[in-house]
Amino acid sequence: MPIHDWTRVDFGVWHDFLLRWIVKLQLELNTELLPSTYYSLAENVTEPTFGLVSLNEPEAYSAMQRQISIRSVDNDALISTIQFVSPWDKLTSEAVRRIVDSAIKSLRDGHHLQIVDLFPCNVHDPDGMHSAIWNELGQSDEKSSLKQPSIVAYSNGETISAYVDPVEVGKALPDMPLFLSEDKYVSVPLNSTYRHSYNGVVGKFRRVVLV
Questions:
Q1: pLDDT at position 78 over 90
Q2: What letter would DSSP give residue 1?
Q3: CB–CB of 80/86 below 8 Å?
Q4: How confident is the model at residue 48 (pLDDT cuts 50, 70, 90)?
Q5: For the chain, percent helix, then strand, then coil, each to nearest 5?
Q6: For residue 96, which of 141, 127, 55 has the smallest C-alpha distance?
Q7: Candidate from 43-57, 90-104, 106-120, 157-171 with smallest mean pLDDT
Q8: Helix, strand or coil for residue 150?
Q9: For the chain, which domains are there?
Q10: What's the mean per-residue pLDDT of the chain?
Q11: 37 phi, psi to nearest 5 deg
Q12: Mean pLDDT, to the nearest integer, of 9-15?
């Protein structure tokens, strides 16, 4: 199924779709893909805010960011993460910085990572999220400047390796590796789970995002 243009709908429609997509992916990881020594959880990645606060729409959705975490059955240690980029993550330089910092921390803590970004680059991430992450790691090169959204799988071992697949609206999602060790991974069925989740979007919005 081709990627749809989610910039044509408001944040709530994307968030509704994303939650459905995460649930479907988590189900397949736990029942079909992960070895029995691992399990996946849908987790909140935003630090909590204490006290009574007033949030505008982007801030409110930012507080509901989600990721899928892969953990060890033995000790619940974090092994790998699938992190989803949403439109509110690109509204400001500070929002982009939060995504980059989260990715850098995960990698520097020794975890593996997959970044799923389906939204166009803008002035706040002009070369793409991977470029910003790669630059921060001191591994910048010409190929890292994609200037378009992408899905990136990071394998964390003696060195960090990045497997990058640029994506664009109107083309199908690739299935990407999610590493469990430096050389062991499962292939995440992004395309089929995306299609399944899209079928649950309200009809009027399905028509709007079509390209």
A1: yes
A2: -
A3: no
A4: very low
A5: 35, 25, 35
A6: 127
A7: 43-57
A8: strand
A9: 6-45+58-209 (3.90.1570)
A10: 90
A11: -85, 0
A12: 94
Number of CB atoms found within 10 A of residue 210's CB: 11
3-class SS at 180?
strand
Diameter of the chain by CA atoms? 49
pLDDT in tens, 133-153: 999 998 766 667 788 999 999
Q: What is the DSSP letter of 184?
A: E
For helices 11-28 and 190-198, angle between their N-to-C axes, nearest 10 degrees: 130
Q: What is the DSSP string of 16-69?
A: HHHHHHHHHHHHHIIIIIS-TTEEEEEEE-SPP--S-----HHHHHHTT-EEEE
Rounded (10°) angle between helices 129-136 and 93-108 = 50
CA dist 105 and 97 (Å) reads 12
pTM: 0.90
d(CA 61, CA 87) in angstroms, rounded, equals: 10
- Identity at 52, one-letter amino acid code: L
| pLDDT value at 51 more than 70 | no
